[in-house]
């Protein structure tokens, strides 16, 4: 998760200093534990327990020394057959095992597109983001409540792309039995996101942080009920590829929930400022683009239905135009 730093002198007068202001970017349990979510879509933990017991049972089945009658021999035979059958059922097929290709590709793409920055930089970035988002979060709270309330009763597995310091955790907590997978290229965001999850009442076992990028998500196909993305698509290297990855990991009918700042209409003073300052914005804000038409890209990216809405956020002049909504796989 990165932050969008607005250029000095271009900030809106409403609540922001004249120097610069930080904006966030790239920035349930009736469900399987998160340790298994990334590797199998339908794997069930009880199968592991059954497998363990059946292994033990097989080891304990020995010829009886107390009796050689047909009844005892039959019991041993039936016990062995049952244990072997149970073991065969309990162990998932190799197709459901972790894909080393998927994981290695995700790591490779991440290292190519977003290699680790110096530790001091990532720590500073995470700290500033944690402290610099309060006014923005206060203004978008209504939108987040509206959008993320959809997850209650509808989603058990949620992936947040660009989880950052975890400002959305409090909205997930309202949904019973939700588990959250947080993806972010900045490892230093993890401790903040975990604190936010705990403060929101999300059990530790229901939240997992993974370092990664949107262009190659380290989770299996059709494994997530929802993907959430707030102020992220402005900075990914490839928006179209990221949205294809979102569709890949969503279950059929799954939801993609988004809030993103976008380009202002052509011919406006704001758009002129965006065009002029976009190269500098990318340099100082970890690749954040001011002129992306993200709403249009979402509509054209192959979702079965995309509800895209426009709004304006007063917190910053250049970043004021926003799109928000839900798209369905």
TrEMBL record:
Ranges for domain Methyltransferase type: 159-258
A Pfam entry, by short name: Methyltransf_11
UniProt-recorded Gene Ontology molecular function terms: S-adenosylmethionine-dependent methyltransferase activity
Entry-linked InterPro entries: Methyltransf_11, SAM-dependent_MTases_sf, Thiol_S-MT
Domain of life according to the entry: Eukaryota
Cited PANTHER family: METHYLTRANSFERASE LIKE 7A, METHYLTRANSFERASE LIKE 7B
Protein name as annotated: Methyltransferase type 11 domain-containing protein
